[in-house]
């Protein structure tokens, strides 16, 4: 496997016990993983890896999605439309400003 150019992390609110809790989990963030994977495939973005994470400690702004190496932290990622905007921006080499956490 080649080293990916981007890594997308989706908060799934897992705690150290392994139990999902918190805002991201309650708002269905884990369900977005397969959508993101499908979108990346459809767009031919084979240089991107997607992973779910434990709690990212930004619950008041969840669901949270982070893209590295850009260090873009997105909040309020609650729909496929928002994910599409974020992926469009990633393809264009810029941030989706409307959803960035500051």
Helices and strands in order, then pairings?
Elements: E1 6-14, H1 22-26, H2 32-43, E2 48-54, E3 65-68, E4 72-74, H3 80-91
Parallel strand pairs: 1-2
Antiparallel strand pairs: 1-3, 3-4
Any overview of this molecule?
The chain has 102 residues and is α+β, with helices and mostly antiparallel strands. It has one domain (6-99): Glutaredoxin (3-Layer(aba) Sandwich). The protein is 28% helix and 23% strand. The chain contains three helices and four strands; from the N terminus they run E-H-H-E-E-E-H. A four-stranded mixed β-sheet has the order 2-1-3-4. Helix 2 (32-43) packs parallel to helix 3. The longest helix is centred in the middle third of the chain and has 12 residues, at 32-43. It is globular, with a radius of gyration of 13 Å. The protein starts with 5 loop residues before the first strand and ends in an 11-residue tail after the last helix. The relative contact order is 0.23.
Keywords:
four-stranded mixed β-sheet; 102 residues; 3 helices; alpha+beta; globular; Glutaredoxin; 4 strands; 23% strand
Brief digest:
With 102 residues, this protein is of the alpha+beta class. The chain has three helices and four strands, in the order βααβββα. Strands 2-1-3-4 form a four-stranded mixed sheet.
CATH architecture classification name: 3-Layer(aba) Sandwich
What is the helical fraction, as a range of percent?
A: 25-40%
Q: Provide the structure class.
A: alpha+beta
Can you tell me the overall shape? globular
Following the backbone from N to C, one meets helices and strands in this order, namely EHHEEEH
The total domain count is 1
Specify the biggest β-sheet: 4 strands, mixed
Low-confidence stretches: none
Name the CATH superfamily assignment.
Glutaredoxin
Please give the count of helices. 3
The overall pLDDT average reads 91
């Amino acid at each position: 496997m080649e080293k990916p150019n981007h890594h997308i992390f989706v908060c799934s609110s897992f705690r150290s016990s392994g139990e999902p809790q918190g805002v991201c989990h309650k708002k269905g963030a884990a369900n977005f993983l397969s959508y993101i994977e499908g979108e990346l495939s459809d767009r031919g973005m084979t240089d991107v890896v997607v992973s779910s994470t434990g709690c990212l400690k930004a619950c008041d702004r969840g669901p949270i999605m982070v893209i590295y190496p850009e260090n873009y932290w997105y909040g309020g990622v609650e729909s496929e439309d928002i994910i599409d905007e974020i992926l469009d921006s990633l393809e264009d080499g810029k941030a989706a400003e409307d959803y960035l956490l500051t």
